[in-house]
Amino acid sequence: MGLYCTIFGHKWNGCKCVRCGFVSQHSNNHHYVPVEGKCQLVCSICGKKVPRQHKWVIVGDKANKECIKYCEICGEKGKAEHKWNKCICERCGAIRKSEHDFHILEGECIEKCSICGTTRPIAHKWAGDVCINCHISKKTYFEQRALEAQGAIYETTGCDIVGEIEDQTLLQNIANNAKLYRVRSEALKHIIKREILISIAQDRSKDYDFRIEAANKIKDDAERKKVLASISMSPGEQSQYDSEVKSGL
Questions:
Q1: Most CB atoms within 10 A, among 30, 44, 157, 210?
Q2: What is the pTM of this model?
């Protein structure tokens, strides 16, 4: 600050003294003008810069199911809130889990949302051995479920399906063919038929522990011990034992 201004005070041109050049950063007398291509204002007198409010435009990216906002001034981009019409976004077409308007499709055990088209299965409604909605038989249904369990890639899914099935042959198929060990083991837990347990225990293509697990489920003590002993037999002993088992089945 100059001596003259110290004694007599500043001579202001807006935010800047024309005599000594002192700038008042807290002055309300800045003359701000926009900076092209930026969300920023600059004082035309002293050069001070301050942020400027973005001018957002929101558009829907339907390919990626996202609402995008971009600033018309500086080009900055970001995610925006969806514009929901119940379960679907009016801008980008994203679908959420809530607020669907489901109706049962005629002749099927499937519900479909009238707004977004999402479908989901519903429980069969059995009348005897046939579903009154989709007319599938219990036999066909459980055969399909057994195949799903065999091909399951998630343990929980496969084990949940096994819990629905009582047919011993279907459980045997799962125990023999399921991709996941835990699903095979879960099926084995539900098998009670003697012939199937012996068959699994004697199958040398199976894991040793799995065969032991099957043998231990045999109720008759003498037969269980005999089967357990056979699991570690030599090929010749195994062949003789297999012949005896087949003649006794």
A1: 30
A2: 0.55
CA dist., res. 240 & res. 31, Å (int): 104
Place of tokens 């829907």: 60
CA torsion sign for 83, 84, 88, 94 is positive
| Percentages (nearest 5) of helix, strand, coil residues in the chain | 35, 20, 45
Same domain, 204 and 227: yes
Residue with tokens 């297999």: 242
Residue 242's pLDDT is: 66
Residues 131 and 240 in one domain: yes
Domain count across the chain: 4
173 and 203 together in one domain: yes
- Verify that 118 and 132 share a domain, yes or no: no
Rounded to whole angstroms, the Cα distance separating 223 from 196 reads 14
For residues 35 and 62, state if they share a domain. Answer: no
Q: d(Cα 139, Cα 49) in Å, to the nearest integer? A: 77
Domain coverage including residue 229: 127-248
CA gap 113, 105 in Å, rounded: 10
Number of H helices, E strands in the chain: 9, 15
List the alpha helices (DSSP H) in the chain. Answer: 3-8, 138-151, 155-162, 168-177, 181-189, 194-201, 208-216, 221-230, 235-248
What span, in angstroms and rounded, lies between the C-alpha atoms of 39 and 49? Answer: 10
| Residue from 15, 10, 21, 1 nearest 44 by CA | 15
DSSP secondary structure code for residue 219 in this structure: S
